[in-house]
């Protein structure tokens, strides 16, 4: 369980896979069993920003480099593009991961999440 109450339901995952198309990239980190995933929305038009929709790593293998490897592989698929994402303001692990890859905060949505937590919008220009 990676997201607790914010986890995607089976219905949400089914919808995600039904939408699979050229613009949706799902990467799975596999160490004999799935230990992490990354979901990107990559519009065909190069000038449109890529959306990083989700990244998660199984709790038992966190802080061993899996998230970084997924992000590296994902960003390679959209080299040169602008990438946007949204993260809860209190999510220190994800925030640190994203900042380490050069993402910068560009705006906030006040009280966006249930419970009143802010959403932080981050951007990476020129992914590599
Ligand atoms: C965010 C997440 C994907 C990171 O995955 P991970 O495999 O643990 O990340 P890595 O081991 O590759 O860490 C890469 C870097 O990110 C930063 N980082 C990761 N976890 C951190 C933590 N708990 N505290 C501080 N920095 C952290 C560090 O800079 C780290 O480098 P270092 O270990 O050399 O210091 C993982 O914590 C997770 O699945 N969280 C729950 C789901 C989530 O919140 N997803 C993001 C919102 S969509």
Automatic annotation (TrEMBL):
<feature type="domain" description="N-acetyltransferase">
    <location>
        <begin position="1"/>
        <end position="127"/>
    </location>
</feature>
<protein>
    <submittedName>
        <fullName>Ribosomal protein S18-alanine N-acetyltransferase</fullName>
    </submittedName>
</protein>
<dbReference type="Pfam" id="PF00583">
    <property type="entry name" value="Acetyltransf_1"/>
</dbReference>
<dbReference type="GO" id="GO:0005840">
    <property type="term" value="C:ribosome"/>
</dbReference>
<keyword id="KW-0687">Ribonucleoprotein</keyword>
<dbReference type="InterPro" id="IPR050276">
    <property type="entry name" value="MshD_Acetyltransferase"/>
</dbReference>
<dbReference type="InterPro" id="IPR000182">
    <property type="entry name" value="GNAT_dom"/>
</dbReference>
<keyword id="KW-0689">Ribosomal protein</keyword>
<dbReference type="InterPro" id="IPR016181">
    <property type="entry name" value="Acyl_CoA_acyltransferase"/>
</dbReference>
